[in-house]
Known about the structure:
Blueprint: H1 21-28, E1 32-36, E2 39-42, H2 44-63, E3 67-68, E4 74-76, H3 77-83, H4 85-88, E5 95-97, E6 103-106, H5 111-119, E7 130-139, E8 154-164, H6 167-187, E9 192-196, E10 207-213, E11 219-224, E12 230-232, E13 253-256, H7 263-269, E14 278-285, E15 288-295, H8 302-309, E16 314-316, H9 319-326, E17 342-347, E18 356-362, E19 365-370, H10 372-375, E20 380-382, E21 400-415, H11 417-421, E22 425-427, E23 433-435, E24 437-444, H12 445-455, E25 457-458, E26 461-462, E27 473-477, H13 483-498, E28 503-505, H14 512-522, E29 526-530, E30 538-543, E31 549-553, H15 554-565
Parallel strand pairs: 3-7, 15-17, 17-20, 27-28, 27-29
Antiparallel strand pairs: 1-2, 4-6, 5-6, 7-8, 8-24, 9-10, 10-21, 11-12, 11-21, 13-19, 14-15, 14-16, 18-19, 21-24, 22-23, 25-26, 29-30, 30-31
The chain binds ligand 9G3 and magnesium ion.
Amino acid sequence: MKQSMTFIPTLREVPADAEVKSHQLMLRAGFTRQNTSGVYSYLPLAHKVLKKIEQIVREEMNNAGASELLMPALQQAELWQESGRWYSYGPELMRLKDRHKREFALGATHEEMITSLVRDEIKSYKRLPLSLYQIQTKFRDEKRPRFGVLRGREFLMKDAYSFHATHESLDEVYVKMFTAYQNIFSRCGLDFRAVIADSGAMGGTDTHEFMVLSDIGEDTIAYSDTSQYAANIEMAPVIATYEKSTEEQKELVKIETPDQKTIEEISTFLNVSKESCIKSVLFKVDDKFVLVLVRGDHEVNDIKVKNLFGASVVELATAEETIKALKCVPGFIGPINVSEDVEVVADHAISSVVNGVCGANEEQFHFQGVNIERDAKITQLADLRFIQEGDISPDGEGTIKFAKGIEVGHVFKLGTRYSESMNATFLDENGRTQPMIMGCYGIGVSRTLAAIIEQHNDENGIVWPESVAPFQIHVIPVNVKNDSQKDLAEKLYTEFTQSGYEVLIDDRAERVGVKFADSDLIGLPLRVTVGKKAEEGIVEVKIRKTGESFEVSVDELHEKVKQILGN
Ligand SMILES: O=C(C[C@@H]1CCCCN1)Cn1cnc2cc(Cl)c(F)cc2c1=O
Ligand SMILES: [Mg+2]
């Protein structure tokens, strides 16, 4: 491709509103432009990288036995009404009406679509298992689109779905997909971890997320410092046990604690440890109030609360709701003398608190000498806190450390969540009608592109792994007005292209400083500069990754390039 003919609008300055490296570099290197919040165009260089990533995805999906198809983005509301998700999803699901006022969703995902397609055609166990996938634009009206294409409202996803007669068959395909994902992200040059995840509203059992390690990742990974254990912190179970102090139980005493609300303030004001404070957090779990107790040095894990109650919505109660439910302003609430319509549950660590402190459900007052099993009515003790660094690893080996990750893949064992609600059944070998067992497997293709940039860049720009680079070689004539430089550069461009390399030539009449700065920004693996020594048949080769550069005679050049780029 000739740069004078294509469209690579590079920027000298770092755009102010781009907070993360990949967003900055995609704008500066002319890979993307934002059209509106969360909506982006992928310019020619980004488009070529997307195609490279897609090609890797296709090869691995096909190798895992899946067949590619393409489903509609326009999804009739009836499908989502059958699964119930038309009602359970809120503003994130983009909806529209056609000219006949019929309602549609813009595809946020395709469980309903694929299930309705397969149920009409597959009736016998003999036709199972079946794995299908697509690579298509998804629409999700994110509340806070940010970080460029990392969290957009329109993005490219590979979504695969598998259908099975038995759970064993699903297990087999799940492993094949898991392996395919490991291959895909390795081939994209990513440093990633597969972590045990929370299946959330998807139901089903096993689920893993593929996380690219990055400080700007929104997800927190809890991993063991000695074993292979790694989980999304949302679901990492806590197996720690707590020794109970032997001190005598004291009387319950109400004390004045003027304006002392947080655990920090209370433990300082009363000169007690955080471990002996009881943190009370009021949630709305679907449509009822639940007061969750955790030890003062722990945090409530709202996903665990959600899973404990099998709820679809769990939200922190507002101040008004708190006053309504507990007859007390936030900051002084607690589990003692709580009205019947508030359920109180506690994390396991609470049972080790002796003579603790908690809110008195009276403004400006707390209780001391609190012994929960004596003074309050707890309906359940459960694992309700976030795991912390230093906790014992859930597999019993080593201690937990945290890392931030960008979720680029997510695989689920769905079970019959959709086949039952949408009546996708088959006749098993005994002639009995059964719901199909399903799996689903997603990769954020456009997010993967940005994640690669997050992990492959330096102070001068992007440093593409060769496997996904938009081009392999950047030929740069220093001065296109000098015939020997111009002719040699074009000759090399033609020869490299004929040898099968993908070549970008900067044939613009720009100053060499601009060309080199743009070349570093765009970040192709290899640069061949044709400058003053063109007459002597000498060019300069530069390796983008290492910064190493050296002069090479033209007749050794092809051999040298072959060594560096492989092929
Ligand atoms: O997408 C999945 C599960 C798997 C992931 C792999 C590929 C197939 N889908 C989970 N999820 C996430 N956000 C969503 C947002 C909206 Cl607005 C929606 F309507 C539905 C979903 C939704 O279902
Ligand atoms: Mg996910």
